[in-house]
UniProtKB/TrEMBL annotation:
PROSITE patterns: CYT_DCMP_DEAMINASES_2. This is Nucleoside deaminase. Its EC number is 3.5.4.33. It comes from Sphingomonas floccifaciens. InterPro entries: CMP_dCMP_dom (IPR002125), Cytidine_deaminase-like (IPR016193). GO terms for molecular function: tRNA-specific adenosine-34 deaminase activity. Pfam families: dCMP_cyt_deam_1. CDD domains: nucleoside_deaminase (cd01285). Residues 4-128 form the CMP/dCMP-type deaminase domain.
Length: 164
C-alpha cells in the first residue's frame, strides 16, 4: 500500500508530528512537501502556538514550500500528511497546484473531533476540482499515523477535544 519513497516521506511526516510530543490533545499532525526528491517543507500543526486557526500542518507546509521555492505554484510536488487533510487544506492543495496528496490515517481511523461536523469529503473535493491533474491517496502507514490521535470510539469530554 505504502512503499518506497512514499513510506520514507511519511516517516518524516510522522517525526515532524511527534516533534513536540505525541499527546493527542496537542494535535500532533505533520506534513512534508517533496519536490524532485527533496523535502522543501516539513511542518507541524501550529494552531495553538501561534495562535492561528488556519495553521494546520498542511497550510504551514504549503506556505514554507512556496517560500523555499520562491514560487506560488508547487507543480510536481507531493504533499504528505499524517492525517486526511480537512476541507481547507485540500482546497489549499488544489490552489497551490501540488500534483499529489498522500495521507496516513483516514477519517474513519480517528475520533470525529478531527473533522468538520458536516465533513466536506476530501475525495469528492478532489474529484470535483477544476483540476484533473491532482491525485490523492490514503492509508500510507495508516495504523502508525492513527496511533497519534484519539481513537474513533474514545470517550472524550468537550474540554478534552482539542480545538483544531
Ligand atoms: Zn486542515
Amino acid at each position: 500500500m505504502c512503499v518506497g519513497a512514499d513510506e520514507t516521506y511519511m516517516r518524516v511526516a510522522l517525526e515532524v508530528a511527534r516533534s513536540k510530543g505525541s499527546d493527542p490533545s496537542t494535535s500532533p499532525l505533520g506534513c512534508v512537501i517533496v519536490l524532485d526528491g527533496e523535502v522543501i517543507a516539513a511542518e507541524r500543526n501550529q494552531t495553538q502556538e501561534l495562535p492561528d486557526a488556519t495553521a494546520h500542518a498542511e497550510m504551514m507546509a504549503i506556505r514554507r514550500a512556496c517560500e523555499t521555492t520562491g514560487e506560488m505554484e508547487l507543480r510536481g510536488a507531493t504533499l504528505y500528511s499524517t492525517l486526511q487533510p480537512c476541507g481547507m487544506c485540500t482546497m489549499a492543495s488544489i490552489w497551490s497546484k501540488v500534483g499529489r496528496v498522500v495521507y496516513g490515517a483516514g477519517r474513519e481511523d480517528v475520533h470525529p473531533m478531527y473533522f468538520e461536523a458536516k465533513h466536506v469529503d476530501t475525495l469528492a473535493f478532489i474529484g470535483d476540482a477544476y483540476r484533473d491533474d491532482i491525485e490523492i491517496e490514503g492509508g500510507c502507514l495508516a495504523e502508525e499515523c492513527a496511533s497519534l490521535y484519539y481513537s474513533p470510539d474514545a470517550d472524550l469530554s468537550a474540554d478534552e477535544q482539542a480545538n483544531l
